[in-house]
Write a structure and sequence with these properties.
One of its GO terms (molecular function) is iron-sulfur cluster binding. The chain has 340 residues and is of the alpha/beta class. The chain folds into 2 domains: 240 residues, TIM Barrel; 65 residues. Helices cover 45% and strands 12% of the residues. The termini are far apart.
Length: 340
């Protein structure tokens, strides 16, 4: 088993990281157990965010008394310098540390956000100040857009990028990976099992792990799935012909109705955040019930109810997805799940 160098940070990482989204759904005692078991098994990078409700707090409590070096990554959706500096202070307190290894601009998914974080009072400059003060070690950014990822990389201002990568979402292989490697930027792969919706999670993770310069961070909430993920990493081998055939079958089955989060379908005339709704299955598997019932997800659900099936999104989708029909299906799933 070989550790993975996270680009110019020179941090040596266990082949997979611990994704901190799903532990929002479980109680504190269970979260502490699964995090400590991950550390026992060798995982040494834990990724979380201010937006993941109590995830940072649970991680901080799990790390108390741990002497092994554990690298921490967190992120903020705040777009201003002052705002992100406040978020960093909260993250430090929650995690119980004096310095966070990687702090990221969370979800830079469109050009307006890109421009905002680099404005004179933008969040990027807050990260620069935090690094100068020793509050963080490295600066990163996460994005669901390949075009924005290219722009972020070309600024040469980031040590780490976080992107979507799995057996369905492979667009980053063409331009983003080569660009990041050229500039020696570390790559963390979120959604390596499609946010829990890809039927063969182990196979998707194995596919992602074939790229030795990528560190996947699957969201983990049970010891069972943790041990399965670690087993895949510890016993990694090249993909067989049979496995590639299985991958192609999954791509054909899911590809007809799998949103890649490219956002080419936007803007929606009804202001529906389309990819949020199309990935509702994943959100409902990973988020706590209270978050589903209020806040950003619930707001997206309410907007989606206004879909008039105008079809504008279909004309823009490069994958020819039947988006209005998919929205209708997802609305019913959400309604049944949250009892609305």
């Amino acid at each position: 088993m070989k550790y993975r160098r996270l680009g110019r940070t020179n941090i040596e990482i266990f082949p997979i990281a611990f994704g901190g989204i799903p532990i929002q759904r479980i109680d504190e005692e269970s979260a502490i157990k699964v995090i400590r078991r991950a550390i026992e098994l060798g995982i040494n990078l834990i990724d979380t965010a201010r937006a993941y409700t109590d995830s940072e707090i649970k991680i901080g409590k799990a790390l108390k008394g741990i002497t092994k070096k554990i690298y921490l990554a967190s992120k903020s959706q705040n777009r201003t310098k002052e705002g992100i500096l406040k978020d960093i202070e909260i993250s430090l307190k929650n995690l119980g540390v004096e310095q966070i290894d990687i702090y990221q601009l969370h979800g830079v998914n469109d050009i307006d956000t890109f421009n905002r974080v680099f404005a004179e009072d933008g969040a990027y400059w807050g990260l620069v100040e935090a690094k100068e003060k020793g509050l963080i070690r490295f600066i990163g950014a996460s994005s669901h857009s390949t075009e924005i990822l290219e722009k972020l990389i070309n600024t040469d201002k980031f040590d780490v990028i976080q992107l979507c990568y799995n057996i369905i979402e492979t667009d980053v292989e063409d331009k983003v990976f080569p660009l990041a490697l050229q500039k020696d930027i570390g790559i963390i792969a979120m959604k390596p099992v499609g946010g829990g919706v890809i039927p063969n999670a182990a196979l998707s993770l194995k596919y992602v792990l074939q790229k030795e310069f990528v560190v996947p961070d699957p969201g983990i909430e049970t010891i069972e799935e943790l041990e399965q993920n670690v087993n895949v990493a510890m016993n990694l081998s090249p993909l067989t012909d049979d496995e590639m055939k299985k991958i192609e079958r999954i791509r054909k089955e899911l590809g007809k109705e799998f949103c890649r989060r490219c956002n080419y379908c936007q803007p929606c005339p009804q202001q529906i955040p389309i990819w949020v709704i199309l990935h509702a299955d994943s959100a409902m598997k990973r988020l706590p019930f209270n978050t589903l019932k209020s806040g950003w997800f619930y707001d997206a659900y309410q907007k989606a109810k206004n879909c008039i099936k105008c079809g504008v999104c279909v004309t823009r989708c490069p994958y020819n997805l039947p988006i209005p029909d998919m929205i209708e299906k997802k609305l019913e799933i959400i309604r049944v799940t949250i009892g609305d």
